[in-house]
Model the fold of this input.
Amino acid sequence: MQVSQELIQKITEEVVRQIQSQKGAGSSYDANGYRKVVAGELGEDDVPSMAGRTRINENKSDYSAYRKAEQGTDPKEIVIGVGAAFQREIKRTIGGIPLDEVIRNVKAGIEEEGMTPRVVKVLDTSDVGFMALESAKLAGSGIGIGIQSKGTTVISQKDLYPLSNLELFPQAPLMTLETYRRIGQNAAKYVKGENVTPIPSVNDPMVRPKYQVKAAIMHIAETEQLDPKLGIIEWEGK
Amino acid sequence: MRIVAGVDIGNSTTEVCIGEFEQGKSVRFLSSASVTTTGTKGTTANIHGILSALKDAMGKIERDVSEIDLIRLNEAAPVIGDTAMETLTETIITDSSMIGHNPSTPAGAGQAAGELLSFDRLSRGRSGTPYIVYASRDYRYEEIAAAINEAAKKLDIVGMILQADEAVLVENRLDRKIPIVDEVKRIDKIPDGKMAAIEVALPGQFIRMLSNPYGIATLLHLNAEETRTVTPIAKSLIGNRSAVVIKTPNGDIRENVLPAGEISLDAEHPVRISLDEGAEKIMKAVNSAGKIYDVTGQENTNVGNMLRRIRKGMSEVSGESDAEVHITDILAVDTLAPVLISGALAGETCLEKAVGIAAMVRTQQLPMRQIAEKLSETLSTRATVAGVEAVMASLGALTTPGTRLPLAILDMGGGSTDAAIIHEDGTVSLTHQAGAGELVSMLIQTELGLENRYMAEQIKRYPLAKVESLFHMRMENGEMYFVQDSIDPRFYGRVVLLTEAGLVRVEKDVPMERIREIRREAKKKVFLTNALRALRSVAPDHNLRDISNVVLVGGSAADFEIPEMLMEEFSTYGIVCGRGNIRGTEGPRNAVATGLVLSYGGEKR
Done:
């Protein structure tokens, strides 16, 4: 299809018109495009609305007993931000690697390079870019790693714009534990200011069609578990 | 009033200079232009480039190409250059006698010697014997650390060798700290029960014991004869952060000197010289040989193949048969090439001695006259071939403010370095030497182990910087530079080149300081050697002190550091040397084209 200037303009106008009409109806969308709660519909709760939808997991984990994640001060510290369903509702990545092993290897990679890892759980968002950025802001070193429960990973730095990153590993089904180890090592090398060589990654055009449904379901399962009231919590182990 | 255009066809660029002559007045320069040369230098394919350069230059002064009354072409120097490289030594390890190893993150510090004990046979260890334990990547670091902590209660474990990159991870979990070397790929080749010594240096330092033959002798209890045989091991470990040496009865490490072969110079004073003797000796022989008619290499040796390759390449360019191609000058440069050691356990590389050679071939006269004829046909103006390139370059260089006769020029291009001197009486002596910009690129490529020449050329051309945050970078001279907007995160933490088109990443795990060192060394090796060689051969009585002015022109003179390097060197001879500034405006370019216009004025008178 040919995308012309005209077509783009038309689409933009259409989208703007829709947003405005929705505003009129009293609903709104957050930055990620998720529908925010309409006041009065679900009480004061600020959780993504599940009204009229089927939940993948009936129950929602309660993290209110966990400590709120603190701002790090150690210049050697790298924060790993994991997804809301990480190691709970979801125990393996989309490629079937146990998440316990994933987190262990990322931490080992960081430690081998002489830096210190800290793991937090991000309950604000399931967008991996924001997860990595928020983690980076908490890290004493300013370097953070975001890992979705399905395995998608991003290395970010605290000064970056939300949609940019230092390294992005989008094809989670093709990742191995070795990749996760190297991700930890690379993050540590950014902290040390060493010359970082990019991790060679496999690319398979068939991954998308093959895993699209599974990826969507896993992402929904993760998003269900968000709890923006709690924000980011300390997550050492389980 | 006549408008004259000077056209200089170079290997890479075609330069044009437009001048106006009025009766009784001196020349007035109107415009100039530079475009990429189309086709091989000296062929009629150049016409397209010439036309577009002329259009460009005349367009700048809003006039038409048809107003040009005369086009003057240079008599291009009938030389082409080529380069080749060959390693001279080869390190071979037999029977796993050594692991000279430099993993990025070893753990602990200090040295240790003991008997090798496999991790899965830990329970068989006897108390009282010092052990160095080695473990494959099948074991996790928690497992290894726990078992070693347990075993250390009974056994004397002094050091460890790991296959996985987990030295720090294991060491962090040990109760008693020991030196650990990791990333040893071929751990299955380690012989059980043999004596071994390992050493890990303190941060920021290099190993001391194992890079010293007597140190190895002390740790492994060697006698005088055995100590002599480990000397190459010690040598190859110099500069490492960690190392392992294993003593095996038959184990050996050799530095093989490859049969590099001999070079024969067919010259006034014919010489044969072996390539093994190094670049310095070769160049001495070349300098004392007098006029060289041809250079050949011994059959079926490295140098023989190398020179044959050059000959073949040149015959393709010039269209002459192999036998007719005569190499009339060579420049040999010592270099080091990182080569994978055969038989190594950890995939180590060793810097092997190598020699790079640039050769120059004198060809038949290039068919410039054909170009001139074709050009005058196309434009219906007069076009002539006028003047030898080097002489025209000297004339052009004289327009640099602050120069006087006798004037020497150094024309540093891609394939050759040319020198010429104009004396007060107008006589000119000139020379062409092999080796210039292309040889520098080859040296950079070899020493950094780069896959392609393009990257090496970029490194040659641009200064380096290290991006340290999204807002600032450290320049290679140590200066901190804060950018206006933020730097693209793709460059975060990377070594980059500062090109006109923005930053370019250097995709190689080499520190900025090392790249800079290699780049500067390569330039010095080629251009300093060649500049001195070229000027000596044109200087009166071959005495450099008789030259007072040297003007640098040509592509490599526009380099950001080569002119300064030469300036420093020549100042010791009391020579004024600097980058040319043709007509006070053009910089080191356009010298030949300017010379062609100027010489027209001279001829008229």
About this structure: Residues 141 and 169 of chain B are 6 Å apart (CA to CA). Chain B has a mean pLDDT of 83. Residues 512-538 of chain B form the longest helix (27 residues). Chain B touches chain A through 24 residues (CB under 8 Å).
